Amino acid sequence: HGRIDAHLSMPTTNHKRTVFVSLAITVITYSVVHFQLLHLSPSTVPVTSGIKYQQSSSIMAVRYQDYVKADYRAFLFATHPTYGMLLLHCTRKKKKPPHFQAPGGHIDKEDFQDAISRTPENSKEGPALLMLACKIGAARELYEETGIDIRAALDRLQPVRLRENSDESLFCELKKRLFFKLCLEDSDFGTTGIESMKAKPLPPMLKLSHEHAKPPPLMLKLSHEHQGFIFEPDATKSVDLLVEHSGGKVSKALRKAIKQDEIKSAENRLDVMGTAEDSKIPSG
Questions:
Q1: In 64-73, which positions are buried (b, 16+ CB within 10 angstroms) versus exposed (e)?
Q2: Are 85 and 76 in contact (CB under 8 A)?
Q3: Cβ atoms of residues 93 and 101 within 8 Å
Q4: I need a surface site. Which of 41, 46, 243, 279 has the fewest CB within 10 A?
Q5: Helix (H) or strand (E) holding 98
């Protein structure tokens, strides 16, 4: 009797199979539901589904943080149709000799947060978010470095095509750096307010050019990082002048942009520079 009772108490093969199938169905069902929750757009989630919305928001937060950790940068090829490309002269980098820079720099966490607040719910991730954040960051850097303010006119910033295949969503990206072009207007340059720097002919020691024409009446409010600026009319010369900037990546990107006919030389061949010496205008 003991053997019979023990045999009866053990589950049969059919019972085991039934339990296994039930568990498998439960796991598959949970996986499908979980997958659907992860891919729901916040705009499609009902108000009562707070957990679903938190899941989707969590995914967006991770992707946003990934961009911040990747340390993206954005730079501008800002050109005046008459005078050429705006280059900033930097002499205060400890590990570099005096060199020229294009406006731009690192994209901050606040730039991404600003981009998220401006972006439709279904675009708060991926290349669209990165592109907008880089535009915001580039406009911010331009204002901080030169006083030129296009922060309320981001549509003036156009992504620069660096490759022939322009179907790529980030065709303006090179080594975690996004590049934009900006057509400068005379009205972009300030002449009042805090002290401004007026454009002057290039000093001979820069050996950039031959004849130095009369400088344009354009002024910038430079940051402490920069001690002067030039307008280089020859786009190919700008490639050489930027070789020390950002590990040579800006120079390489400009060369690619010129090859794609994205950046052209100025109409007039004028080489001019702005310096802090004898060029400050009193406030007001």
A1: beebeeeebb
A2: no
A3: no
A4: 46
A5: none
pLDDT digits over 98-120, tens only? Answer: 999 999 999 999 999 999 999 87
Question: Taking a C-beta distance cutoff of 8 angstroms, is the pair 135, 154 a contact?
Answer: yes
Q: How far apart are CA 185 and CA 145, in angstroms?
A: 17
The DSSP code for 220 is E
| pLDDT value, residue 25 | 64
CA dihedral 235, 157, 184, 252 (to 10 degrees): -20
pLDDT tens string 33-45: 444 444 444 333 3
- Residue 131 CA to residue 160 CA, distance in Å, equals 12
| Residue 59 DSSP SS3 | helix
Shortest CA distance to 90 belongs to which of 46, 145, 144, 45? 145
- In this structure, is the dihedral angle defined by the CA atoms of residues 139, 144, 146 and 150, taken in order, positive or negative? positive
Question: pLDDT tens across 130-148, in order?
Answer: 999 999 999 999 999 999 9
Smallest Cα–Cα separation from 270: which of 195, 200, 175, 204? Answer: 200
Beta bridge partners of 273: 200, 230
